[in-house]
Amino acid sequence: MPASRRELPRFSRAEFEARAECARRLMTKSRLDAVLVSTEANLGYLSGFTSQLPWLTPARPWYFLLPRVGRPVGIIPDSGVDAWRATSWVTELRTWRSPNPENEGLDLIAAAIGSLKVRYGRVGFELGPETRLGFPVADLLRLKDMIRPAEMVDGSGVLRAARMIKSPAEIARIRRAARIACDAFDALPDAFEKGWSERDVMRWMQAETLLRGADKAPFMMVRSGAGAISSLYLGPTGRRPKRGDVMLIDAGCVYDGYSCDFDRLFSFGPPTDEVKRAHEALWRATEAGLAAARPGNTAEAVFLAQAKALEEAGWGRPKMGRFGHGLGRIITEPPSNKLGDKTKLRPGMVLTIEPGVSLGPERMLVHEENIAITEDGCRLLTRRARRRMAEIET
Amino acid sequence: MPASRRELPRFSRAEFEARAECARRLMTKSRLDAVLVSTEANLGYLSGFTSQLPWLTPARPWYFLLPRVGRPVGIIPDSGVDAWRATSWVTELRTWRSPNPENEGLDLIAAAIGSLKVRYGRVGFELGPETRLGFPVADLLRLKDMIRPAEMVDGSGVLRAARMIKSPAEIARIRRAARIACDAFDALPDAFEKGWSERDVMRWMQAETLLRGADKAPFMMVRSGAGAISSLYLGPTGRRPKRGDVMLIDAGCVYDGYSCDFDRLFSFGPPTDEVKRAHEALWRATEAGLAAARPGNTAEAVFLAQAKALEEAGWGRPKMGRFGHGLGRIITEPPSNKLGDKTKLRPGMVLTIEPGVSLGPERMLVHEENIAITEDGCRLLTRRARRRMAEIET
Question: What are the residues whose beta carbons fall under 8 Å from the beta carbon of B388, sequence distance 6 or more?
């Protein structure tokens, strides 16, 4: 194993207090007395609680209640108290013996909501767009009656807005993940062995990012094809890339809960003229996206800048729905760099710049970088891809 | 990278047809005209669709409708058609341009349900215990009105029951994952380098299982302590194990969508007498669990056999809620080896045998193996842990 780099320092208590404060301001704006969260992204964000198992198994739910006024409380299985105490800044806990499908902590949630300081009579749950629920819907519906007279409403907007602006410590984690993946990408052409399938490349890339300090590598899409790939959903397969192929690797590895998300293209042997032309257009469109990614511009403007650069380079308006998106605790977060997304960019947002070109039916190429919006523009979190496509000898 | 072992052959079409048939029989029993699934575990199980990204991002939902009578249909983002065609046996597709938070395919679902052959007027969704929903609850509630007069009810029991009995091809995948993790465990004592933290061990174990042929290694819990650990939720941390410590590694690596879940204990230097005694008791309790794991016995009986062995070895009735559980596409599935779980074991079930002992407040040790129930008993999928705890030199 390569010598571990120094781990980043843990999030400070001040950081969590600032997150809670921000969420509380947004709760006032949304007329909510509290939010109840149950997913890794939101519960971990607000409470700091960190553990692997709760998010991989549906056997035991974990909840966190942040009141607008009053003390936050973790409502968790009793077997997890030590992990909570070791990782969360929140000391108030209610526990039950889980699994207990008849009542997975629902009475504890209802009691905690019942003792809230009430102003609006509304409690926000994770119901809205780009949100999942961390416990069974049937339990949510039971809870809806159990918490009356408090009203169950969508509170996902509070978390979405709070998480959209990242702190320097959060950005440092995304940058760490991105740099680890950059190093692995740089090492791949030398490491590649004849006969590897896309699936073997995926395994090697995951292992390489882990050994270089990533904590997880859940997304490692690998797909190859003659001069293009068909989509970002198919792959890796058992296909063995061969001379004349392009291979796209889209990497989402995670450091301390934060994900990068960017891709690199590799040519097996020299790229064809069409591939070179597409790559050059993507590289330029990315430059245009980077130039447009600054405070005051909208996510839509970042899309349009990339689309214009592609059109100027002779590529038609492509069919991809968006040219990048937010990222952080989840590999895709709002906003979307697409037509109609009028989200104004602000310092602290982290985005992907992701132009794509269509080379025919089910033939595409994509480029992707990760950036953080600064006071006067943006900062690359990835190391910028080379203008010339990397080659793998065959 | 070690030479890849041969990949297992893909699931046959006959396998998927048998799954659909089984689900349909269960639908008749539950008086359902169809089930609508949206999670990796259930959608992948019924349709065969395989992709990384859909399950990592909440930006675009994916749905699959299996009618009791009539053709199944995938309802998916248009960017995923190629991946669907390459991995699923189902050819009927409805697509829309996603992300589109205003209407993420809801009208397509409602239309598909509207054209069902109706007998019961009820459609099952993923609402029940140990189940999550793969799309926003707010959309589910909109859909509830959109599908009237069809009634939205819980259909999770159908999937739970269908998935509980594994085919030989499914068991082969769990066994492959388990054997890969066994090999990595065997290699760890030699590979361990002085100064590694628990987090470094996690990274190495993940990388090692990937390079040996796992597709993912999402669960790799590593925790160390003086003669015991505090729970299965805390860890890995930055703690560096030292002489006199016990280290527990609980491994859930995945091969082709199926997970193993078992742990191994390591002693840094010779184990203390207390640790030896606990380890021996756990080893024997596991033997007792293996002997009890046979068709006709209940999950509760498997718990009781382990508990009895521990009590006979002089350990009190422990506080752990259960001594093992089902596993498969998810790292924990029903049944639970616990008091009150009267699920009758049947050939094709895959279980963990997982006794634990408490050595004091927040001090525990656990043992775990994976088995498949056969016609007349069970078969180990892991290689049985050695009776003597593995040692790591310090």
Answer: none
Asked if A237 and B86 come within 8 Å (Cβ–Cβ), the reply is yes
DSSP reduced 3-state for A125: strand
Count of other CB atoms within 10 angstroms of residue A37:
28
**All structural domains of chain A:** 13-163 (3.40.350.10), 168-392 (3.90.230.10)
Q: What is the tens place of the pLDDT at every residue in A87-133? A: 999 999 999 999 888 999 999 999 999 999 999 999 999 999 999 99
The average confidence (pLDDT) of chain B is 96
**Contact between B58 and A132 using a beta-carbon 8 Å cutoff:** yes
Tally: H helices and E strands in chain A: 10, 18
Task: Specify the pLDDT at position B320.
Answer: 73
Q: What is the DSSP string of B323-366?
A: S-EE-SSSSSEEEE-STT--PBP-TT-EEEE--EEEEETTEEEE
- Containing H/E element for B145? helix B137-146
Strands (E), chain A: 34-37, 63-67, 73-77, 93-96, 122-125, 151-154, 216-226, 245-255, 258-259, 262-268, 325-326, 333-336, 350-353, 356-360, 363-366, 369-373, 378-380, 390-392
Cα of A385 to nearest chain B Cα, Å: 22
> CA-CA distances (angstroms) from residue A244 to A186, A226, A271, A360, A387?
20, 6, 7, 17, 19
Q: CB of A105 within 8 A of CB of A21?
A: no
- Cross-chain residue pair A233–B54, CB shorter than 8 Å: yes
Arithmetic mean of pLDDT over chain A: 96
Please say whether the dihedral angle defined by the alpha carbons of residues B222, B226, B232 and B237, taken in this order, is positive or negative: negative
Helix%, strand%, coil% for chain A, nearest 5: 35, 25, 40
- Residue pair B220/B252 in contact (Cβ under 8 Å)? The answer is yes
Which residues of chain B have a CB within 8 Å of the CB of A152? none
Where are the alpha helices (H) located in B212-298, listed in sequence order? 273-292
Q: Rounded distance, CA A347 to CA B167, Å?
A: 53
Residues of A in contact with B220 (CB under 8 A): 52
Per-residue model confidence as pLDDT tens digits over A37-70: 999 999 999 999 999 999 999 999 999 999 999 9
By Cβ distance, the residue of B1, B57, B193 closest to A200 is B1
Residue of chain A whose alpha carbon sits nearest to that of B198: A215
Separation CA A228–CA A280 (nearest Å): 14
Distance CA A179, CA A217 (A): 13
The torsion angle over the Cα atoms of residues B56, B59, B60 and B64, rounded to 10 degrees, is 50
CA dihedral B328, B329, B330, B331 (to 10 degrees): 40
Tokens of A25: 């301001």
Among A308, A307, A338, which residue's Cα sits nearest to residue A322?
A338
